[in-house]
Amino acid sequence: MTASSLDLTRLSEHLPTEAPLLAERTFPLDIGRYHTDAIVTRGVEMVFQNGSEQFQALKGIDLDVHIGDIQLLMGPSGSGKTTLLSILAGILTPTAGSVNLLGREITSMSREQLAKFRLKNIGFIFQGFNLFPALTAQENVELALRVKGMPAKAVRQEARFLLDQVGLSAQAKQLPRDLSGGQKQRVAIARALAGNPRLIMADEPTAALDSQNGHAVIELLRRLAKESGRTVLMVTHDPRIMDVADRVVYLEDGMLKA
Amino acid sequence: MASIARKNLFEDIPRFLVAQAGIVFAVSLVTIQVGILRGFTRGTALLIDQSKADIWVGSADMVQMELTSPLPLEQLLQARKVPGVALAEALVVSSSRWRTPDKTVPPTKRITPVRIFGFNPKGQLFAPEPITQGSLSALTEPYTVIVDESNQQSLNLKQLGAVGTIASLKAKLVGTTQGTQSIASSTYIFTSLESAKAYAQSGISPEVNCRLQDGNIRCNSNYDITSTAIGVDNLTPPVPEKLSATDPISYILVKATPNQNLKTLKQALEKALPGTRAFTRLEMAQQTRDFWQKRTGVGFVLGLGATVGVIVGMVIVSQILYSSVSDHLKEFGTLKAMGASDWVIYGVILEQALWMAVLGYIPGILLCLGLGSWTLATQGIIILITPLTAGGVLLVTVSMCIGSALFAIQKVTHVDPAIVFKA
To answer: Using the beta-carbon criterion (under 8 Å), do A117 and B339 form an inter-chain contact?
Structure first.
């Protein structure tokens, strides 16, 4: 194995056996898509209530994201992209509609069930990196591994492996404040890979990066999807990412445009 | 794996030090208030605790050690005849006025109210402890006294052999003790029974000074004998008389024979000595402490201070923890978004609170120990920090930090995980 390839098979050695990818269905799906869709939404709506005023952020969202695809979600500011991403991540509950992730209907899950589902299946990459400033790069990854239940003995070795995968072995002991924006995002990607999740959800992952670092991160995300079969859902304004995307959907005024 | 709680704390050292200073202050506030309360409580009955007497016999209307009616010495002799009494000694507690002869001392600092304890220096049942300079046996010399080290300055007794006056009689320092002074009382003076009797009876003497001035005789009267009148070194009072049967004493201290039932002996003493009440040493100490704590309100005030200390401490720690949690809210939100259970986050906050408690407690308690030594040496005020007090304060500190952490946790409980998507 080399640092340039994403060999994530070792992760599974330390983790509990995964449930079948698509375990059960709780709402009707197109049989043809049964084995190929990582994310399926139907009629998702989101209404925010502010006092007596209502604001409908999402209107009837029907979305299908295939396993192993890089799916971009684009649109102008205020179009509802982040709201939709929060719903697809199980962080927000829609006011109407259904959301099926990896064959599980998540809108009917309790808060605790959702947390467990996220912990097991979803890795997050944030625009602001959201690294713990007091922890080194390695400790940030170790924390994610510990939270995901990896045995303490394996955590250090695994964190080193993940940092190696994103080309940051030399910076493992550095604090986030001593890293460049691109390096921070690569640490965040390593952290997102902790626990070998099947879905990666990224919110403007290149927005805070310069051209060179942006390209490096894009390439890393492409390899994530294509070499390890993960599904990557990305909210972005960055047109550079369109070159590596399998599908792009546009959101405008809370509605998907073709 | 590094502790995120510890790393969060040490991330910004200046900020951490400011926060810890707040906790050190809170710990010190609680410790000092509790220490003063305990020191005060202990000090009011310390002489009773130190006595070797099994039973204290006092007047039936005795309120506390320093507030009682006199008994005739004759009752001491009667007490010695009561079956079960192995030893009985007299103790005299009286009040008087100390005057220093040193003219360099400002006039407003020359007079001090004193509480005189007269006892048999060769006896076994009462003595101030420890004797740090001089010796107890030196009190057998007439008009000699032992004082607490903390009072030497206020009495202007710089070294052994220094002299002052009590009422109109001289008093020579022959020893010092330490930690015996109650902060609730006048300055303690320890002397022999005979000297105590002499001081009590000396009262205030009239004196007239006259001199010839401009052909006229000018006189002024002075109702005290002082060094200005005749000079302390020239005082030659008569040797004090031994106590007679009719002389007043304050207490009869009793040592029981081995295996004697104290309850039975108390009853026998009260029966043999009309107008008296007998207390075991513990009962006597408790009676005295109860007076100061409950009847004077001093105990309430100090107890209130300790309670306020705990509350102020909690507010300080809460504010620090709440602020710390607010600063790391996005990080906690990230953990929640990742799917970490609330207990992981609570664990971080609680661990942080415990570190703050321990790292605030250690310097706080050390500071108080140092302050306690200083106040005892210079002011005679005991800030009593026993292992029990220290343990109790640690428990309070940990409790208030955990209580504050629970308060801070409320903020995390309501954090919207969607916060993580806001750049």
So the answer is: yes
Q: Same domain, yes or no, for B241 and B117?
A: yes
**Residue B288 belongs to a domain:** no
What interface predicted TM-score (ipTM) does this complex get?
A: 0.79
What is the span of the domain harbouring residue B404?
Answer: 2-44+297-421
Q: Do A130 and B330 touch (CB under 8 A)?
A: yes
Residues B71 and B39 in one domain: no
Residues B133 and B221 in one domain: yes
- Provide the token pair at B104: 């360099």
Measure CB to CB from residue A86 to each of B4, B335, B421 and give the nearest one.
Answer: B421
Residues of A in contact with B330 (CB under 8 A): 128, 130
Interface test with B, best of A129, A147, A185 (most B CBs within 10 A): A147
**Set of chain B residues whose Cβ sits within 8 Å of the Cβ of A135:** 2, 4, 7
| Residue B400 maps to a domain | yes
In DSSP terms, B191 is beta-bridged to B118
Q: In which band, very low, low, confident or very high, does the pLDDT at B208 lie, cut at 50, 70 and 90?
A: low
Q: What would you report as the CA-atom Rg of chain B, rounded to the nearest whole angstrom? A: 30
Report the alpha-carbon distance of residue B101 to residue B356 in Å, rounded.
Answer: 55
What is the Cα–Cα distance from B340 to A146, expressed in whole angstroms?
10
pLDDT in tens, B279-323: 999 999 999 998 988 887 777 887 788 788 778 777 877 787 778
Which residue among B1, B341, B423 places its CB closest to the CB of A155?
A: B1
Chain A residue closest in CA terms to B330: A130
B115-124 per-position pLDDT tens digit: 999 999 999 9
Which of residues B152 and B302 earns the better pLDDT score?
B152
> Looking at B241, B274, B307, which one is the last position of a domain?
B274
Calculate ∠ Cα B62-B273-B50, nearest 5°. Answer: 55
Interface residue of A143, A146, A235 to substitute, partner B, most B CBs within 10 Å: A143
Cα distance between residue A218 and residue A195, in whole Å: 21
In this structure, are B392 and B268 located in the same domain?
Answer: no
